Amino acid sequence: MSALRHIAIFGAGAWGIALAQNFARAGHKVTLWSRSPVDAASRRLPRLPHVALLPAVHVTNVMPEGADDTLFATPTHALRDIARVTSGRGPVIACCKGLERDTYAFPADILRATCPGRDVAILSGPNFAGEIATGLPAAATLAASHLSMAEEIASRLATPRFRLYASDDLTGVQLAGAAKNVIAIAAGIAIGAQLGENARAALMTRGLAEMHRLNRALGGQAKTLSGLSGMGDLILTCTGPSSRNFRFGLALGQNADARALALDETHGIVEGCRTAPVLLKLARRHAIDMPLVETVSKLIAGDMSVTAAKAALMSRPLATE
Ligand SMILES: NC(=O)c1ccc[n+]([C@@H]2O[C@H](COP(=O)([O-])OP(=O)(O)OC[C@H]3O[C@@H](n4cnc5c(N)ncnc54)[C@H](O)[C@@H]3O)[C@@H](O)[C@H]2O)c1
Ligand SMILES: O=P(O)(O)OC[C@H](O)CO
């Protein structure tokens, strides 16, 4: 295992807590930054109240200093504001999955702009926070612009319970992480509306085809979409009932007032809701057809019913694959 490090994590939500526990369990010193005042004595944080923080995790709302590695586990829309006020040395690693609304920027673009001169990386994969927080085994992709950089960071941050696979495909990894949340909403809708398992499998597969089209146009590598951050995360999020994106879709498919649920972040961020319309605009900029992403965007906005969505998708011209 690598030498012990001081790791700063911004965002004390579900993912920040899980990462903190993982690194602390491996012996690293962890500073977990929370934007709200913290009751440090309880060693429990609201998002995962069943998890008692390990002693090596120091929770604070004061900017951490002197960390070897800095990770961001905030929602994507909060990343720019947080990253621009951090300082320090060592790599900055975004662990969020999404696209910024007005700029169409992926997390690595945001970190490049806000943390000039520092190495930038992305951590993404099939990772439910609750499982990692309790020490169950998992794996993810660690991507950077150069493979040697990704390998170096991955070897430092991998732990006995969290394997990291290096990649030099920032584009593919980030596109997959953003898009799978949108497809998971579609999968949830299919199950919620009792359209069946066949429909879910078809949505996942055709969703993956849409991801491939845009990935190609953006310059991402096809093989990335078969990896942990691609297929791996797509499978987990579309089939794992603890996915917030899937659960949001499920509620939408059951005609529940899901939009209110998505906007209420007290139950955790539903990134796919914010991502869907931005992803659609990005695809249009590149003249890429993403009918599934378009349909999910309309359903989220309340501009289409599930019945109309089913009819529209089933009556599209037949195609090859
Ligand atoms: N939960 C998971 O299983 C998981 C796994 C992998 C990746 N992710 C990704 O990690 C990111 C964070 O997810 P999460 O599950 O931790 O969400 P969460 O809703 O549980 O927590 C988000 C945290 O960010 C903080 N935050 C929100 N807005 C902020 C702002 N403007 N400034 C500062 N802090 C702010 C919140 O207070 C909260 O502590 C998302 O992009 C998500 O897709 C989540
Ligand atoms: O709960 P979700 O839908 O945000 O998914 C969490 C992770 O991204 C799964 O890898």
UniProtKB/TrEMBL annotation:
Pathway given in the UniProt record: Membrane lipid metabolism; glycerophospholipid metabolism
Family listed: Belongs to the NAD-dependent glycerol-3-phosphate dehydrogenase family.
Ranges where the Glycerol-3-phosphate dehydrogenase NAD-dependent N-terminal domain occurs: 7-148
Function text: Catalyzes the reduction of the glycolytic intermediate dihydroxyacetone phosphate (DHAP) to sn-glycerol 3-phosphate (G3P), the key precursor for phospholipid synthesis.
Sequence positions that bind sn-glycerol 3-phosphate: K97, G125, K180, D233, S243, R244, N245
Subcellular location field: Cytoplasm
EC category: oxidoreductase
PANTHER family in UniProt: GLYCEROL-3-PHOSPHATE DEHYDROGENASE, GLYCEROL-3-PHOSPHATE DEHYDROGENASE [NAD(+)] 2, CHLOROPLASTIC
Biological source species: Sorlinia euscelidii
Protein name: Glycerol-3-phosphate dehydrogenase [NAD(P)+]
The protein's Enzyme Commission number: 1.1.1.94
Oxidoreductase among keywords: yes
Alphabetic keyword roster: Cytoplasm, Lipid biosynthesis, Lipid metabolism, NAD, NADP, Nucleotide-binding, Oxidoreductase, Phospholipid biosynthesis, Phospholipid metabolism
Sequence positions that bind NADPH: W15, R35, K97, A129, R244, I269, E271
The organism's place on the tree of life at top rank: Bacteria
Domain called Glycerol-3-phosphate dehydrogenase NAD-dependent C-terminal: residue spans: 169-309
Active-site residues, Swiss-Prot/TrEMBL: K180
PROSITE patterns, sorted: NAD_G3PDH
UniProt catalytic activity: sn-glycerol 3-phosphate + NAD(+) = dihydroxyacetone phosphate + NADH + H(+); sn-glycerol 3-phosphate + NADP(+) = dihydroxyacetone phosphate + NADPH + H(+)
